[in-house]
Amino acid sequence: MEHYKVIFQPETREVEVLAGTDLMEVMNDAGVEHDFPCGGMGRCGKCRLKISHGLNPPTAREKEILNAGEIEDGVRLACLTKVQNDMVVVTEGDKKLQHNILLASEERPFNIKPHLNKIFINIEKPAIHDQRSDWRRIKDTLRKNGCEYNDLTVPIRVLRQIPAVIREAGHRITLVTDGNEVLGIEAQDTSEKMLGMAFDIGTTTIVGYLLNLCSGEILGVASTLNPQTRFGADVISRVNFAAQNEDGLDKLHKTVIDAINMLIGKASGEAGVSRSNIYGVSIAANTCMHHLFLGITPENIAAAPYVPATGEPVVAAAEELCIEINPAGRIFVLPNIAGFVGADTTAVLLAAELEQSEDIKLIIDIGTNGEIAIGSKAGIVACSAAAGPAFEGAQISSGMRGADGAIDHVHFARQLEYSVIGGGAPLGICGSALLDTVAGLVELGIIDKRGRILNPDKLTNPAGKRFANHIIEHGGQPAFLLVPAGKTGHGRPITCTQSDIRELQLAKGAMAAGVKVLIDKLGIGTGDIKEVLLAGAFGNYLNPHSACVLGLIPMELEGKIRMIGNAAGTGARLALLSSDEYRKAGDIAGDVEFVELGSYPKFNSIFGECTYFTIQDKN
Ligand code: FES
C-alpha cells in the first residue's frame, strides 16, 4: 500500500503515513497539538489549518463551513482531510494560544494529617553473635523507639531493597509507611522530604499544586490545557472517541497520565526538588476524567442510567498508574457523586464546607456540564445541568476558549466596548463575553423575551437604537456585529448570531432550571439562600450582573454572589494534606442527594420557561 509524507510546519515535523489516513489521526499520533472541539465530527468548523502543498478538493461540508477565500487559500478542516498526497500542513506552531487557566482559590483552616509517615531509625548492625534478620532488626529498633507495630507488613518489592539500602546507608534508614504497611525504605534521614501534588483535572485544563506535605506550603503550581482536547472538546466527544476506537480508551488514559507526569516534572523542576521526594498525588476530576485517569471505560456514564464504575475514594500505588513519583507513593482519587456530578464537585463541596454550614448556600460550577449544589448542614442536594459547550465558546459561530485573542468582556456604553485577553486584535469571543453580549442585547431591547434579534426598525429602546447598524445578516441569519472583519486578527467578522443566542438560551435554561429544581426539592424559597458561591474558571470570569440579567442565577441573588476560584483544586489539596479531609470527601460523596433533572416532575416545562429572558429595557 502506498505511503505519503506529511510535513508539519513551522515545527518541521515529518511523518510517513498510509494513503487515506485521516489527518486528525496523523496529528494525534505525531503529537501535533491542535484543537478538535467537536471530536472530529465535522460539526464545529474549528479545526481549520492551512495546507500549503498536497491540497485535496474541499468536501461538501468544508464548502458549507469555509468561505471561498479560505478554500482558495488552502484552508481545510483537519478532521475531514485524508492524506492522499505528500502534504505540507501549516499549524499554529509557536503562535499557539496561551490559555487563561484559573489557579487561585479561597483558603480555609484545617489540620494537616499526612496519609503517609516517614520514620528515621538507626538500626543496630548485625554481628556474629547477633544474627537477627534485617527485617527483625528494623522492627526491634522501631519498638525500642516507642513505635508499636506488631503487625507491620512489608511487600516483597521493599524486602528486596532492604539488604542493600541498610548496608549502603550505614544502617541509618528512613521507612515510608502507610498505617501498618511499609511502602518504601530510603538511605539516611529523609523524614523532612515529604512532598505531594494535588491535581484538578478538568475537561479543558489541568492544574497541579506541588505541596510540602508536612507544612502544607504550596511550593509551585503547574498547569496545562488538557491534551485530551485533541480527541474532543467535551466529555461526550471523548466518551465517543473511547467507544468508537479500539485503542481509544488507552489513548485517552495515556494522554492524561503523560500530562500529569509532565506537570510533576515541571513543578518539581521549577521548585528545585526531586520528583522522587513526591509521595502522594490527589486527583479531583469530573466523573469522565476520573474514569479516563484510572483507565476505566466512561461509556456507562454517557448513556442512561448514567452509572459510574465507582462512587468511593480510590487509593492506588503510583506504579500501578505509571505516575512518575517515588515508587512508594500513593494516588488518592476523590470520590464521584454521580455520573455527571463528579469528584471535582466533591472537592468543591469539601473546600466550601457546605456540609457544616448553618446557612443555606448555592454553589455553581458552570461548564459544559454545570454542577449545582444547594444545602447546609441539614442536607445537600446536587444536580448536573447539561449546559452544552456554549459557555466554553464551542459551537458558537465566533466562539473560542478563554485564550489570547478572545474577547472576554463586552460593555454597551455610548459605543460598544470590549476587552481582549492578551490585548491586540480579537479572534473570537469566549463564554463570558457571549454572556455580556446577550445580556446587553436583552437590556437594550435588541433581543426579545424569546431570544429573537429584532429588525432595526422594530427597536423602541433609545439606547438600543444606537446599535441598530450592528444588526446584520450573517450566514443567512440575523446577527449582531461585534467586530467588523477589518478589525479582527483573522479578517473575518466577529458576530453573535441568532443560532448563538439559541445555544446560549439552551445553556442558561439548563442551568437556571437546575437551580429551580433543587430549590423545589429542598422545599425552600430563593430568598432562603444566603450566599451564591461561583466555582471554576467560567464562574470566576463572568460578570455576575450579566448572569443575573440572563436568569442564569436568580436576579434576587445578585448581591449575594461570591467567586471562590478553583475550589476543586483547593479540595484536592485538602484531601492530600489531611487523611481526615480525604475521609470527609468520602462522606460528602455518600451523603449528597443527587437529583436527576431529566426524571424530575415537570422538568421539561421548567426548562422551557427558563430559556426565556425576563428583563428588558435599559435606557
Ligand atoms: S469540525 Fe473538525 S473538529 Fe469540529
Assembly type:
single chain
Ligand species? FE2/S2 (inorganic) cluster
From the 3D coordinates, which CATH architecture of the largest domain would you assign? 2-Layer Sandwich
Strand order across the largest sheet: 11-10-9-12-14-13
Average per-residue pLDDT, rounded, comes to 90
Biggest beta sheet attributes: 6 strands, mixed
- Helical fraction equals 25-40%
Strand content: 15-25%
Let me know the number of strands.
26
How many whole angstroms does the radius of gyration measure? Answer: 27 Å
The first-to-last residue Cα distance is 69 Å
CATH class of the largest domain: Alpha Beta
Kindly describe this structure:
This protein is α/β, with parallel strands linked by helices and 619 residues long. It has 5 domains: 3-95, Ubiquitin-like (UB roll), CATH 3.10.20.30; 117-187, Ubiquitin-like (UB roll) (Roll), CATH 3.10.20.880; 195-333, Nucleotidyltransferase, domain 5, CATH 3.30.420; 354-389 and 506-610, 2-Layer Sandwich (Nucleotidyltransferase, domain 5), CATH 3.30.420; 391-504, no CATH class. Helix content is 30%, strand content 24%. Helix 6 (235-244) crosses helix 7 (248-271) and helix 10 (343-352) crosses helix 16. Mean pLDDT is 90; it is low at 93-97. The protein binds FE2/S2 (inorganic) cluster (FES).
